[in-house]
Automatic annotation (TrEMBL):
Biological source species: Streptococcus dysgalactiae subsp. dysgalactiae
Cited Pfam families: Strep_his_triad (PF04270)
Region feature (Disordered): 26-57
InterPro entries: His_triad_protein (IPR023832), Strep_his_triad_rpt (IPR006270)
Protein name, per record: Histidine triad protein
Gene: htpA
Length: 152
């Protein structure tokens, strides 16, 4: 549970930091192109790319990366996927057939409540309990759409 909270906090800080603290540099004098929404570093850190107007399939094709896009965080505004060495943010609901991080699973002691359901996904639901989003599987034995942190 603590690991889940830590991952959520780290991703929230990354999202807030990248949107609120845009560095001012000489690059601001250069003309902007279609790539202006992307943030990248030359370090080995994972970075967030704002591709909220594209689908995961469009991103895969555009970047030519064979890595799976795994949903690692869900918020009121959208969701974040891990994609190779970086992240992408998408507006809207998590697609039905998305791959999901096991870190998003509802706690083992969670009692299903239909009023918590936000949307349907393959073999389960996206839930919102309080201010936290979870994945709830209808059948715990079928985890085809789940990935562990090491697989991401």
């Amino acid at each position: 549970m603590n690991k889940r909270i830590n991952v959520t906090i780290v991703l929230a800080v990354i999202l807030c930091g990248l949107t609120a603290c845009k560095p001012q540099s000489m690059e601001d004098t250069k003309p902007k192109n279609d790539q202006s929404h992307k943030t990248s570093h030359k370090s080995h850190e994972k970075v967030l790319k704002d591709d909220s107007d594209k689908t995961p399939a469009e991103i895969d094709q555009k970047e030519g990366i064979a890595a799976e896009q795994i949903v690692v965080s869900i918020s009121d505004d959208g969701f974040v996927t891990s994609h190779g060495d970086h992240y992408h943010f998408y507006n809207g609901e998590v697609p039905f057939d998305s791959l999901l991080s096991t870190e998003l699973l509802a706690p083992e002691d969670y009692q299903f409540d239909n009023s918590h359901v936000i949307s349907d996904i393959q073999n389960g639901y996206i839930l919102k309990v309080g201010e936290t989003y979870y994945v709830y599987l209808k059948d715990q034995n079928h985890r085809d759409n789940l990935r562990t942190v090491s697989e991401e």
